[in-house]
Write a structure and sequence with these properties.
alpha/beta; Rossmann fold; 8-stranded mixed β-sheet; 11 helices; 8 strands
């Protein structure tokens, strides 16, 4: 699967990031494809560009600390990632768009609506949730990532190499191509780990009932990373949200893309059609 053109762009006052672009049909609505934790735009979305690009303009950025995304001086914040997406839209002259968020990208999509409501035509939330921890053990696990992030400041090279190897072994077992795995060596692992901690602290349940744009929720029903019941909280919390199911695990977008991508397209088209009705 060939990747679409990509380029680096400068976001004034924020830094330089990298995006993939598909022009789409004339006057097509824009999808902002927001990747998951430890991934990149390429790794998360490479199976979707061709199909989605037949109907939509596509912009897929690397998030902060991931791949060729913005390199930070301070700590990683999901809110900053949401603001980065709005800044990308500004630079590209895009007034409104549909955030399509996968896993961590789903938290960023939710925050884009909260912080930039007038820019959001609709939401597509994939394999994600309004919160990711409930038990004490889960919270301690995510907090532990903060400690690892501090360690990475002291031994950045060794930590990066060890973490890259661990992710490599996981992704290799899932059938991911070596070109995609190699991208992970470009991550800033301190900020990757801080991102994991930020995901553990995320909770949108208090304000999700205010979401007033068409929303599709793509459920991965065999997901062991984000359990189905947590994904379903999005449907329960967002007025009028529609669900689309794939009988697959968390990494279905690439590991089982033949089943996943047609459902993702249906979910995106549903949001578009409802947004213009």
């Amino acid at each position: 699967m060939a990747l679409p053109p990509g380029r680096s762009i400068d976001l004034p006052g924020r830094g330089q990031t990298f995006i993939r672009e598909v022009a789409g049909p004339p006057d097509a609505p824009t999808l902002m494809l927001l990747h998951g934790w430890t991934a990149t735009a390429d790794l998360n979305w490479f199976t979707t560009f061709e199909v989605l690009g037949q109907h939509f303009r596509i912009i897929a950025p690397d998030h902060r600390g991931h791949g060729q995304g913005i390199r930070l001086k301070g700590s990683f914040r999901l809110e900053d990632c949401a603001d980065d997406v709005a800044a990308i839209a500004d630079i590209l002259g895009i007034n409104t768009f549909i955030p399509v968020g996968y896993s961590m990208g789903g938290t960023i999509a939710q925050l884009i609506w909260q912080r930039h409501e007038s820019r959001v035509r609709g939401l597509v939330l994939c394999s994600t949730a309004p919160h990711f921890t409930t038990s004490r053990e889960e919270r301690l696990g995510f907090l532990g990532l903060t400690g690892l992030a501090a360690l990475s400041r002291l031994t950045p090279t060794q930590t990066r190499d060890w973490l890259t190897e661990q992710i490599y072994l996981q992704r290799k077992s899932e059938g991911v191509e070596p070109w995609a795995i190699a991208q992970m060596a470009t991550h800033d692992w301190r900020h990757i780990l801080e991102a994991g901690s930020a995901i553990g602290n995320f909770n949108s349940l208090d304000w999700l009932p205010g979401v007033d744009v068409p929303t599709s929720v793509v459920l991965t029903t065999q997901d062991t990373v984000v359990p189905l019941e947590r994904q379903q909280r999005l449907i329960e919390s967002i007025p009028g949200a529609q669900s689309f199911e794939v009988s697959a695990g968390h990494n279905a977008v690439y590991a089982q893309h033949e089943a996943y991508v047609p459902v993702l397209l249906e979910a995106c088209l549903s949001v578009h059609h409802r947004s213009v009705a």
